[in-house]
Amino acid sequence: MSFVTLEVEVPSQFPAERVFKVFSDFDTIAPKVLPQVFKSIETVQGNGDVGTIKTFTFGDAVPFTSAKYKVDALDVSNNSYSYSFIEGDNLIGILESISYHVKVVPSSDGGSVFKQTVKYNCKGDEKPAEEFLKKEKELYENTYKAIEAYAVAHPETY
């Protein structure tokens, strides 16, 4: 099976633990701050730990309608999280799955860096187009910024 990897890095002024805590509430925050991208995110099986299955319903700003995702790994002490989209039209007909590994690492200035590795696992030889990957990367970066802005606006929670 062939694959394409995309690396996303976004610096933050906030400590790694705080950034990770905010992203732990992604299911709640994302539909509030980006309803045009994430209409809803629902847990259909599990409690958030490894093996949990969630259903995403996408908004009008993206060319997909829905997807199913599974939590692959969760390591709160290392601020890391892995998950995979395993079903849905976001697999664009040519992908077996899309695997994500998120790690928030401390930076020397007291802030952190949100690092996300996205692996597009292709069914055959066809790979996602460069333009598609560019839009995906922009979406990931914009999503991060919107969620961080939400945390800034809600300091009592985050």
Any descriptors?
158 residues; alpha+beta; seven-stranded antiparallel sheet; 3 helices; 26% helix; globular; Bet_v_I/MLP
Structural summary, described in words:
One of its GO terms (biological process) is abscisic acid-activated signaling pathway. It comes from Deinandra increscens subsp. villosa. Keywords: Pathogenesis-related protein, Plant defense. The protein contains three helices and seven strands. Strands 1-7-6-5-4-3-2 form a seven-stranded antiparallel sheet. With 158 residues, it is α+β, with helices and mostly antiparallel strands. Helix 2 (26-33) crosses helix 3. The protein has helices at residues 16-24, 26-33, 130-153, and strands at 3-12, 38-45, 53-58, 66-75, 80-88, 95-106, 112-122.
Short structural description:
It is built from three helices and seven strands; from the N terminus they run E-H-H-E-E-E-E-E-E-H. The protein has 158 residues and is an alpha+beta fold.
Could you tell me the radius of gyration in angstroms? Answer: 15 Å
Number of strands: 7
Along the chain, the helix and strand elements come as EHHEEEEEEH
**Biggest pleated-sheet summary:** 7 strands, antiparallel
Shape: globular
**Total of DSSP H or I helical runs spanning 4+ residues:** 3
Please give the share of residues in helix. Answer: 25-40%
What distance lies between the first and last C-alpha atoms, to the nearest angstrom? Answer: 41 Å
The proportion of strand residues reads 35-45%
